[in-house]
Amino acid sequence: MPRSLPPHVYFLVSAVFHYLGPAFAVLLFARLDALGVAWLRIASAAVVFAVWRRPWRYWDRLDRRVLIAWAAVLAVMNSVFYLALERLPLGTVAAIEFLPVIVLAAVAVRTPRNLAALAAAVVGVYLLTDVHLVADPLGIAFAAANAVLFAVYIMLSHRMSRGVSGIDGLALSMLLAAVIAVPIGIADALPAFTDPVALAAGIGVGICSSVIPYVTDQLAMARLPRATYALMVSLLPATVIGVVVLTQIPAPKEIVGVALVIAGVALHREAVSGACGANHRALRGHAAGEGAP
Question: Model's pTM, two decimal places?
């Protein structure tokens, strides 16, 4: 994708593919266990990045501590994400994942509207997850771990996007993540090597879940503040894709929860937009004052 496109275009592509890939990955659970699907996703993405970027050339030019931390987050985050998907609907997992992200945005922009947005999101997530809290506490635990790691992923990704090359840093981290994830998922992934359909599907999931969205994340983050990107992460793509691909139709209570979370996102956007407008007007006024006799 050309770098001249607005960052919001990259975000839109990332948002769709972040959940389109996992939606199809759920369909693979009939052939492979969750950790096997997760490892195939990471390993196939690592192979694509290795061929495309040859990222080892930048090892001496990148912050190794950030690279290793990022790799560990990618390996564990993807693993617990699929463990959660094995037990909970995609929309519910995405809702839990979203809560630390809106908190991340709220910390950066402190206004009464942000507090209202956070409250709406909390109630929305509660409505989406309450039915599962007793039924599958382990699934909730995996989803919560994934949520925290996703917020860390955003912070590390944003930091790397401002470096020598965010995409090359991503590629190198993905290679390291594939190695870190070997003891976690290789045993469960072995059946795919004798099942061409499962192997091809796993590779497809890796491209849709880790190559396309993570690259567009880097292209968007390079031109957006971290808080702005965090508050743009929306539940809507996950909800729509979960319904269309997995036929996971939400109950009325869950629809209200989704609406509240989306309302929280909208409220945050308005708050940030208003703040940016105020800052812009202040700068114009200051410039006019300097130019006055």
Answer: 0.77
